Structures are given as C-alpha cells and as structure tokens.
From TrEMBL:
The keyword Hydrolase applies. Coiled coil: none annotated. Residues 31-268 form the Dienelactone hydrolase domain. It comes from the Eukaryota. It comes from Decorospora gaudefroyi. The lineage of its organism: Eukaryota, Fungi, Dikarya, Ascomycota, Pezizomycotina. One of its GO terms (molecular function) is hydrolase activity. Keywords: Hydrolase. This is Dienelactone hydrolase family protein-like protein.
Length: 270
C-alpha cells in the first residue's frame, strides 16, 4: 500500500513505470482482461479498472491493479477498446508534464493541438458512449453475477474516468473512483449518481478547468450520498496514472491518489 509520501512499493510515478505485472490474461464477459488476484484468490471484493486511451496493456494500470490485489481485491482490467487503444508514443502529445507544456511556443502548441485533434477525434468517435457504455455495462453485469462476488468497485482514469462516474448511476457497482475524468457533461453526468463517488482532480488539468471543478464540487456537496472531491495542486491531466517521475511533487500526488482509491474502497467495499 502507498505511504502517501515519496516512492512506495506500489508507486506508479513516472510516465511509463518500470516493472513486470504479476497477473494473467483471461477472457471475461467476452473481453480480454488482465487479472490480478489477491493472495487468497477470493473474488468477494472486485475492483474493475476502466482505462484511459492507452488501454489495458499500459504497464502502469496493470501494476496498479497488482497493488489492489495485494490489498485483498480481485482486480480486473478489461480491454474495453477491443484492441484499438492508442499507442503509448502518443502520450507526450496529449499531456506533457507541466514544465514542458508551459515552455512550448505558440507554434508548438498549435502543432500539438492539430496532432491531437487529427488522432483523438476519430478515435473518440469510434469509441463513443453508445458503443463503449454497453460493453462496460455488460462486463460489470457479468462480474456482478459471478459466484462469490459480494462487492464491486470501479476505478477509471481520463477517458475511463467518465465511465466510472456513469457506472455509479445504478446498481452495477457499490462504489466508484474517478481520476481526472475527461469529456464529462456537467451536470448531466453527475446528477444521476446514486453510489458513493470519489474524485481526484488536478488543478492544472487542461481538460477540466477551475470553473468546471467548482461546478462538480457544488453538485456533489448537494447530493445526499457519500462523496469526496480531492484537488491535487499543479497536477495535469493523467497525473494519477502517468505523472512525471522527475518531480517529487508529482510522485507524492501519484502516491496520494493511489492511497485515496484504496481508502475509498476499503470504506465502501469492506
């Protein structure tokens, strides 16, 4: 478990974390899935990971799933993109570390924006809600109905963060945790939330500004359910899964975001 300070056994600091995932790959609910099992192999408490645009094979998300398994959860990382995730090389273009982002010239920013639009636009259209949500809902339904399963949590990052929020609209999960969700509709995605929801948001997220963050905080505070919104100072989009290893502040933010999720599920999944 993360200590919340500096590096830890499960810390994922760094754009692409070094290490070898310890789990296995199986087919669950018709989707290829990375599975990290707890030491007792119990599936009483399941946490499903909804990935960002870089997909289920991104080492960082698998290593984080391993961390959850060490804490007693059966961790599943389904391939909800069905083999069509974006390449890791695209990571720097989407969201460079804050110092690099601030040093870009106007021309460089324009070129980066054009590249992101040309690549990400068609991908998002292909993996729109009408396509992706049924896949995710079907997977959660299969997991929920599996023998031995008692509680189900869902954690999502960026693209997957929004679907973690949507999963909290009904009874497919018992609790949800969304890290720097992207493409959210405010208030439409938050008004129907009926399950405990935790949010980890960066104050320098280029996809979720200060105004939107305040709107989300206000909406969640007014709801009659357990929720939390934690802000991470100077953190950019994607910080909880792929922050900058060279920054002590970023390392700590990743540790703290990991700890936030583990504590949230300990509270709501038992």
């Amino acid at each position: 478990m993360s200590t919340g300070v500096g590096m830890s056994d499960c810390c994922l600091s760094g754009k692409v974390q070094q290490g070898t995932p310890a789990g296995s790959e199986k087919e669950i609910g018709g989707l290829d899935t990375y599975v990290a099992e707890p030491s007792d192999r119990s599936n009483a408490k399941v946490v499903v990971f909804l990935v960002d645009i870089f997909g289920w094979k991104f080492p960082n998300v698998r290593l984080l799933a391993d961390c959850y398994a060490k804490e007693g959860y059966m961790a599943y990382v389904p391939d909800v993109h069905q083999g069509d995730s974006l390449p890791i090389e695209f990571l720097q273009t989407v969201e460079p570390p804050l110092p690099e982002r601030e040093s870009l010239t106007v021309t460089q920013k324009a070129a980066s924006t054009a590249k992101v639009g040309a690549t990400l636009g068609p991908w998002l259209a292909k993996h729109r809600e009408g396509v992706s949500k049924p896949l995710i809902d079907d997977f959660l339904t299969v997991v929920r109905g599996s023998p031995g399963v008692q509680k189900v949590g869902v954690i999502g990052f960026c693209w997957g963060g929004r679907y973690a929020i949507l999963a909290a609209h009904g009874d497919l999960v018992d609790a949800a945790y969304a890290c720097h969700p992207s493409l959210v509709a405010i208030p439409a995605d938050f008004d129907p939330v009926v399950k405990p929801l935790s949010l980890a948001l960066g104050t320098q997220d280029s996809l979720l500004g200060t105004k939107e963050i305040e709107q989300i905080k206000d909406l969640m505070e007014k709801k009659q359910l357990q929720s939390e919104v934690k802000l991470y100072e100077d953190q950019v989009h994607g910080f909880a899964l792929r922050g900058d290893w060279s920054s002590e502040k970023d390392k700590k933010a990743m540790d703290d975001a990991e700890k936030q999720g583990l504590e949230w599920f300990k509270k709501h999944l038992g």
